[in-house]
């Protein structure tokens, strides 16, 4: 459903949020290792997230990536998804057809509209803080 870049973006944002809550900045290499992503690909994703004000990038020997603590609760998954994949997830056809709409629906249109609306609601209601809670307790994991 999400692009690979978006999946990595969600994982990276979650990991950075967890570390930021512990007053830690994390390096590109550490993030790439933690989310099992190539370093160069991770760098592009993090640049996109920083450009969209999801996270902060601090240069220098004590630098790295962080998310302001007050933003960990405010930032929703929808912000991360939009920064990486845009809003096409909310408007595309479930079968990838160009002319699918209310007037000319594809065979999955009515069912897919429901799923898409539920997905949008979940992304808009789930904060990075929500995701870090399971990680912090060891209930959920970022690696396979």
Automatic annotation (TrEMBL):
A GO cellular component entry from the record: cytosol
UniProt-recorded name of the protein: Rrf2 family transcriptional regulator
Organism, scientific name: Aureibaculum algae
Superkingdom of this protein's organism: Bacteria
Residues in the signal sequence: none
SUPFAM superfamilies: Winged helix' DNA-binding domain
Pfam family membership, one: Rrf2
GO molecular function: DNA-binding transcription factor activity
């Amino acid at each position: 459903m999400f692009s690979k870049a978006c999946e990595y973006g969600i994982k990276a944002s979650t990991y950075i949020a967890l570390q930021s809550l512990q007053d830690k900045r994390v390096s590109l290499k550490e993030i790439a290792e933690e989310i099992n992503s190539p370093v160069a690909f991770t760098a592009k994703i993090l640049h996109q997230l920083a450009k969209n004000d999801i996270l902060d990038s601090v240069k220098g020997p004590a630098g790295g990536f962080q998310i302001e603590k007050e933003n960990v609760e405010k930032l929703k998954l929808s912000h991360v998804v939009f920064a990486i994949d845009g809003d096409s997830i909310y408007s595309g056809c479930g079968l990838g057809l160009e002319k699918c709409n209310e007037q000319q629906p594809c065979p999955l249109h009515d069912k897919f509209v429901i799923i898409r609306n539920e997905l949008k609601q979940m992304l808009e209601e789930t904060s990075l803080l929500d995701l870090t809670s399971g990680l912090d307790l060891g209930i959920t994991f970022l690696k396979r």
